[in-house]
TrEMBL record:
PROSITE patterns for the chain: G_TR_2
The protein's name in its UniProt record: Elongation factor Tu
Sequence ranges assigned to domain Tr-type G in this UniProt record: 1-124
Record keywords: Elongation factor, Protein biosynthesis
Gene Ontology molecular-function annotations: GTP binding; GTPase activity; translation elongation factor activity
UniProt cross-references to PANTHER family, sorted A to Z: ELONGATION FACTOR TU, MITOCHONDRIAL, ELONGATION FACTOR TU-RELATED
Top-level taxonomic group: Bacteria
Length: 128
């Protein structure tokens, strides 16, 4: 569910997130956590999204020394909202550079997919 932070999209996010088993939280490494980042984490927790993976996007545009600080800030927000912030996978990349075929950033998308594959399969009613 793409929820860019605009208040008109929040209702759709809540409706869709209530059915999700996992989410990829995309945060700009260049801008850091924004108010909507905190809202998305809070809402994901409240509707019961059990698993998160964080993709720090735009790492190609960020000041390299600040990227660990952005990651630390997001981990703290995750922990304050009931997630195990220190255990959540973080992938640092650039979606645009990956789309352009940059092998450094393509490998980060592959890493993201690998993290998705590690998530536990949910138990469905038909499995009970």
């Amino acid at each position: 569910i793409d929820c860019p932070g605009h208040k008109d999209y929040i209702k759709n996010m809540i409706t869709g997130a209530a059915q999700m088993d996992a989410a990829i939280l995309v945060v700009s490494a260049a801008d850091g956590a924004q108010p909507q980042t905190k809202e998305h984490i809070l809402l994901a927790k409240h509707v019961g999204v059990p698993n998160l993976i964080v993709f720090l996007n735009k790492c190609d545009l960020a000041i390299p020394d600040l990227i660990p600080l952005v990651e630390h800030e997001i981990r703290e927000i995750l922990t304050k909202n009931g997630y195990k912030g220190d255990e959540i996978p973080f992938i640092q990349g650039s979606a645009l550079k990956a789309l352009d075929g940059d092998s450094k950033y393509l490998s980060k998308i592959e890493e993201l997919v690998a993290e998705l594959d590690k998530l536990p399969l949910p138990l469905r009613d038909i499995d009970k």
